[in-house]
Amino acid sequence: MYYKFSGFTQRLTGVVSSSAYNPQGLRSNIPSEPPTTFFATPTKLVSESNAAVEYMGANKVPDLQRLFQASEEIPVHLKRGVSDRLLYRTTMALTVGGALYCLVALYIAAQPKNK
């Protein structure tokens, strides 16, 4: 007797030998063509544009390299301005608040209960 896991009942069920060797999630056929890539696809067809192919986004790496490699007195994690300062201060406030909360909870847990 052959058994197969039933996805409907979530139990083993008795089956014939041919279906026991073909699990439900696996298919024997292989796709004939590879899947299409969806990243870094041009916005225009090559035949439509006579210049170089334009991609979805501009390359921001050189600008960011210039920004982060400039010799200023600002730390690297704060160089992008107000949003970085806000994220940094929020993170520090949450960290200090969480540490204080843990100390208070530890202090409360260490006190004996009064009867």
Automatic annotation (TrEMBL):
Entry keywords, A to Z: Membrane, Mitochondrion, Mitochondrion inner membrane, Transit peptide, Transmembrane, Transmembrane helix
Pathway annotation: Energy metabolism; oxidative phosphorylation
InterPro entries, per database record: COX7a, Cyt_c_oxidase_su7a-rel_mt, Cyt_c_oxidase_su7a_sf, Cytc_oxidase_su7a_met
Location relative to the cell: Mitochondrion inner membrane
GO cellular component, as recorded: mitochondrial inner membrane; respiratory chain complex IV
GO BP, sorted A to Z: mitochondrial electron transport, cytochrome c to oxygen; mitochondrial respirasome assembly; regulation of oxidative phosphorylation
Membrane association type: Single-pass membrane protein
Taxonomy, superkingdom: Eukaryota
Broad class of where this protein is predominantly found: mitochondrion
Protein family per UniProt: Belongs to the cytochrome c oxidase VIIa family.
Protein name, per record: Cytochrome c oxidase subunit 7A2-like, mitochondrial
Gene name tied to this protein: LOC109095483
